[in-house]
TrEMBL record:
Nucleotide-binding among keywords: no
Subcellular location: Membrane
Pfam family, one: AA_permease_2
TM segment ranges: 28-53, 59-81, 102-126, 155-173, 185-204, 216-235, 256-280, 300-323, 352-369, 375-397, 409-427, 433-452
Listed InterPro entries: AA/rel_permease1 (IPR002293)
UniProt entry tagged with the keyword Membrane: yes
Protein name per the record: APA family basic amino acid/polyamine antiporter
Lineage: superkingdom: Bacteria
Gene3D superfamilies recorded: Amino acid/polyamine transporter I (1.20.1740.10)
Length: 461
């Protein structure tokens, strides 16, 4: 039983972070762009309309604020850990050092599911926007090649989703230096597009559309908050980049907190303008931001929004694939997954094989599986990770009170406890089918841990 909770020492982790296995190329600005690239995408361009129409109404802004608060509290915890122990793996690594190997494996296994499903779900959204853009030029994908089987459209494979995942995989396998340049350019484009929407849309806001403000009551706001939480996932991907940051102690807290603050502000402004431009009952569409501009006759800017949406969703894909590879890379290096997943390419300095395996699995999910139900797994997986990292900060303060910390969470243990409670509250608001699927995935993880990972663990040696 004792071996299930064996821990990696903080000294060992810090020493490991100083080994130059991966190339250090990222600055604070790059990390902020990475965070914005991960967070602003499907949430702002797709989820805003659906949640307003079905759950929150104009009170969508309150749902975003609640989710933002939960994420901000978790972000402080991430910032303390990532600046203290700057190593790949994010919450998996932090859990290994505080709560032990079994918990670490399960949260790592949980993160693998979270990122794989997120990649596939976001690629499906990208495919929808891309097909809409092509249709504007009179180009139409055959139905058989534009949707997954089971989506109700007679599809055989969602080919655009598969292609974009392979392109992202090819880019990331070549190195982070090239990937960060492309990500930074695309982030600037999508921020410009969002600002264009705000400037254009503010003149068409009708305050009457904000009445009734909360048509579905407080329960609808909470349900909306649990759903739009999907919009925030990804800022934790900044923590997975710790081993590739030039000055991790300074830059990681800046990257995590700055990206989350910028994204939360933009989400609040866009949701307020969106529900002010169009009655919330009419926003249940796949492209609510473009639809709102078309609704008020701004068709030219609506076209630009589609381009911005494609760009924005592409950056989300890039960061999600990157984060998934870094988590499985860390687990492999610790012996909990096969060693080949942590092998670094001699020329590109990337986990080359791991990147392509991730790409193939995500492409298969996006191409052949309808992800309507599975997408909820992303939320519950992220909330579970946020819960554990909040608890881990309290544990680390107790077990290593004198450890040098570049960034410290204020008011410990109060803020981490509030973070834990909020995350659990949002988890309880998710559908029962999500919990069932999550439990099944955890059971599969337990089987893998006891049959392979436990005896191959580096700590077992």
């Amino acid at each position: 039983m004792r071996s299930l909770f064996r821990k990696k020492s903080i000294t060992q982790l810090i020493h490991q972070s100083q080994q130059r296995t991966l190339e250090r190329t990222l600055s604070a600005i790059d990390l902020t762009m990475l965070g914005i690239g991960a967070v602003i995408g499907t949430g702002i361009f797709v989820l805003t309309g659906v949640v307003a129409a079905e759950s929150a109404g104009p009170a969508l802004i309150i749902s975003f604020i609640l989710s933002g608060i939960a994420c901000a509290l978790a972000a402080f915890c991430y910032a303390e850990f990532a600046s203290t122990v700057p190593i790949s793996g994010s919450v998996y690594t932090y859990t290994y050092a505080t709560l032990g190997e079994l918990f670490a494996f399960l949260i790592g296994w949980d993160l693998i599911l979270e990122y794989l499903i997120a990649i596939a779900a976001v690629a499906t959204g990208w495919s929808g926007y891309f097909q809409t853009l092509l249709s504007g030029f009179g180009i139409h994908f055959p139905k058989e090649l534009s949707s997954a089987p089971g989506a109700g459209e007679g599809g055989i494979i969602n080919l655009p989703a598969v292609i974009i995942i392979f392109l992202i995989t090819a880019l990331l396998s070549r190195g982070m230096k090239e990937s960060k340049r492309i990500n930074n350019i695309m982030v600037v484009i999508k921020l410009a597009v969002i600002v264009a929407f705000i400037i254009a849309g503010i003149f068409y806001v009708k305050p009457d559309n904000w009445t009734p403000f909360a048509p579905f009551g407080f329960e609808g706001i909470i349900t909306g908050a649990a759903t739009v939480f999907f919009a925030y996932i990804g800022f934790d991907a900044v923590a997975t980049a710790a081993e590739e940051v030039k000055k991790p102690q300074r830059d990681i807290p800046i990257g995590i907190i700055a990206s989350l603050a910028i994204c939360t502000a933009l989400y609040m402004i866009v949701s307020l303008i969106l529900t002010g431009m169009v009655p919330y009952t009419q926003l249940n569409v796949a492209d609510p931001v473009s639809f709102a501009l078309q609704f008020v006759g701004q068709n030219t800017i609506a076209g630009l929004i589609s381009v911005g949406a494609i760009t924005g969703i592409t950056t989300v894909l890039l960061v999600m694939v990157y984060a998934q590879v870094r988590v499985s890379f860390s687990m492999s290096r610790d012996g909990l997954l096969p060693k080949k997943l942590s092998k670094v390419h001699p020329k590109f300095k990337t986990p080359y094989l791991n990147t392509w395996i991730t790409g193939f699995i995500a492409a298969a999910l996006a191409g052949f599986i309808d992800l309507t139900t599975l997408a909820h797994l992303v939320n519950i997986g992220t909330l579970a990770a946020f819960t554990l990292v909040s608890i881990a900060v309290i544990v680390l303060r107790k077990t290593h009170p004198t450890l040098k910390r570049a960034f410290k969470v204020p008011f410990v243990p109060v803020l981490p406890l509030i973070s834990t409670i909020l995350c659990i509250l949002l988890m309880t608001s998710l559908p029962a089918v999500t919990w069932k699927a999550f439990i099944i995935w955890i059971v599969i993880g337990l089987i893998i841990y006891f049959t392979y990972s436990r005896k191959h663990s580096q700590l077992n040696k």
